[in-house]
């Protein structure tokens, strides 16, 4: 690929809709009226809403131009990865919009919803097989709601054994939602410091694990993009004291088809269908965070559950130990259809998704590690974390690097996260990017590293080419101008 990604295309200016059109112009022709004209009661309507008067073409051009100001995963590399926006095959959107699915109503009787119930039943079985944790609920509508479900299950389990517990261990490399979910469920989160190589040290867990600790929540791979290779030992320590192990599987993109999570000693795991299993997620929802558990914890899963009686599928509410209902009806079903379609269309190749995601991240890590400081120099999973330590010598910070990437036609990666790494730049290329695109991204990052030495001010003034240049973020937060 000789052509460089660039941002110097034809980008139109566009005013507000209120500055377009002219009074009386309209985009639709109403049929001739067949009743007498009657004035609206002014007392009721006031002067009426201030709608602009526009033709159809005014509106089409307005929104088309605005859409061209945008950057999405369909326009270029988006190194925020599966965690925010990986490429989702379009066929899965298509399946979710099939009329039988799109038109289904949650109040339809079971006999008229057999297709959807079968889909949910089979999807739960697939997720059980992929994770190695066979009992599954599809109800939670986000990863964090899956975590809350898991904590409710922890709590119900310990109550059922007759010994309620009050604390949950959470490593410092866990996702921020983990301590929040534990606290929301009434547990006291207790931080576990990870070791110098960025992963959990079994002795640190053993020192904190006691009879009042309900268990541990482990994000694996953790937020540094590293596989928790001591997880089995940690799980044995926690189980030895009667605790349970929660796995945050939002990053399943890295280990699908490769790791059996049940074999790692995890008792409860959530997945983010809107990260790993083909639902666009950048806009903030909706999502689905199914929870998979061991057979021993199945009685505590939420209701209703889809069960199969002979050839007929039905919903069953009759589980006395269940933590109850978490969502209206059965969850965000449209997301479940996309995941089902994704899994069926890939079949055994699901494993390759993870292998390519990990390969791509390690390729970037190896090629950039001379140019950017790599705090944990070891094989990574689906994402790698650099810092701005080398560039700080020239007073160039992570934010400057991220902004400059926009001039090269790339969406900036996740920055200043994870919090345990100062000035973090977290790059997640995903499985879908080709080597050519990765090379272009690496070239851009290397060029920025050279520029940081040669012309730090150029970076402070970036981005130069996009429609909107660098924003005053403090001003934008303190006094946002919402009128354009
Ligand atoms: C995204 C994410 C979550 C939270 O998922 P939501 O669907 O955003 O609530 C939890 N843990 C990890 C590791 C994540 O990446």
From TrEMBL:
Keywords: Oxidoreductase, Pyridoxal phosphate. GO terms for biological process: glycine decarboxylation via glycine cleavage system. The keyword Oxidoreductase applies. This is glycine dehydrogenase (aminomethyl-transferring). Its EC number is 1.4.4.2. Residues 153-282 form the Aminotransferase class V domain. The glycine cleavage system catalyzes the degradation of glycine. The P protein binds the alpha-amino group of glycine through its pyridoxal phosphate cofactor; CO(2) is released and the remaining methylamine moiety is then transferred to the lipoamide cofactor of the H protein. It catalyses: N(6)-[(R)-lipoyl]-L-lysyl-[glycine-cleavage complex H protein] + glycine + H(+) = N(6)-[(R)-S(8)-aminomethyldihydrolipoyl]-L-lysyl-[glycine-cleavage complex H protein] + CO2. It is an enzyme of class 1 (oxidoreductase). InterPro entries: Aminotrans_V_dom, GDC-P_C, GDC_P, PyrdxlP-dep_Trfase, PyrdxlP-dep_Trfase_major, PyrdxlP-dep_Trfase_small. Residues 354-455 form the Glycine dehydrogenase C-terminal domain. Transmembrane segments: none annotated. It holds the Pfam family Aminotran_5. One of its GO terms (molecular function) is pyridoxal phosphate binding. GO terms for cellular component: cytosol; glycine cleavage complex. The keyword Glycosyltransferase does not apply. It comes from the Bacteria.
């Amino acid at each position: 690929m000789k052509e460089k990604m660039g941002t110097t295309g034809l980008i139109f200016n566009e005013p507000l809709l209120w500055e377009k059109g002219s009074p009386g112009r309209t985009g639709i022709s109403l049929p001739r009226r067949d009743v007498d004209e009657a004035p609206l009661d002014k007392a009721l309507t006031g002067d009426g809403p201030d709608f602009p008067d526009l033709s159809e073409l005014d509106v089409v051009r307005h929104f088309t131009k605005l859409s061209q100001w945008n950057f999405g995963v369909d326009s270029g590399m988006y190194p925020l990865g599966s965690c925010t926006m990986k490429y989702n095959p379009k066929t899965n959107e298509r399946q979710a919009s099939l009329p039988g699915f799109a038109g289904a109503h949650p109040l339809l009787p079971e006999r008229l919803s057999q297709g959807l119930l079968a889909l949910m039943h089979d999807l739960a079985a697939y997720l059980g097989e992929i994770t190695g944790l066979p009992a599954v609920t599809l109800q939670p509508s986000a990863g964090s709601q899956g975590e809350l479900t898991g904590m409710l299950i922890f709590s119900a389990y310990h109550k059922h054994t007759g010994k309620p517990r009050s604390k949950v261990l959470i490593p410092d490399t866990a996702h921020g939602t983990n301590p929040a979910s534990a606290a929301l469920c009434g547990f006291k989160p207790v931080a576990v410091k990870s070791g110098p190589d960025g992963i959990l040290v079994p002795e640190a867990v053993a020192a904190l694990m006691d009879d009042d600790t309900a268990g541990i929540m482990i994000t694996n791979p953790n937020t540094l993009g590293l596989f928790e290779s001591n997880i089995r030992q940690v799980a044995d320590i926690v189980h030895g004291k009667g605790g349970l192990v929660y796995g945050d599987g939002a990053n399943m993109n890295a280990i699908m088809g490769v790791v059996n999570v049940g074999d790692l000693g995890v008792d409860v795991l959530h997945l983010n269908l809107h990260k790993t299993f083909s639902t666009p997620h950048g806009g903030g929802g909706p999502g689905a965070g199914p929870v998979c558990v061991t057979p021993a914890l199945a009685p505590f899963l939420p209701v209703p559950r889809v069960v199969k009686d002979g050839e007929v599928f039905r919903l069953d509410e009759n589980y006395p130990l269940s933590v109850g209902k978490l969502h209206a009806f059965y969850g965000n079903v449209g997301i479940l259809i996309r995941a089902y379609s994704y899994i069926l269309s890939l079949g055994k190749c699901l494993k390759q998704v993870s292998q390519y995601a990990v390969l791509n991240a390690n390729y970037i890590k190896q090629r950039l590690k001379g140019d950017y400081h790599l705090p944990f120099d070891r094989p990574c999973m689906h994402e790698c974390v650099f810092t701005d330590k080398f560039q700080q010598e020239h007073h160039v910070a992570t934010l400057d690097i991220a902004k400059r990437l926009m001039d090269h036609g790339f969406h900036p990666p996740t920055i200043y996260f994870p919090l345990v790494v100062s000035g973090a730049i977290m790059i997640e290329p995903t499985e879908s990017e080709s080597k050519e695109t990765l090379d272009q991204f690496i070239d851009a990052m290397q060029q920025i590293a050279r520029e940081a030495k040669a012309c730090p001010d150029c970076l402070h003034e970036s981005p130069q080419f996009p429609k909107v240049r660098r924003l005053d973020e403090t001003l934008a937060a303190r006094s946002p101008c919402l009128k354009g």
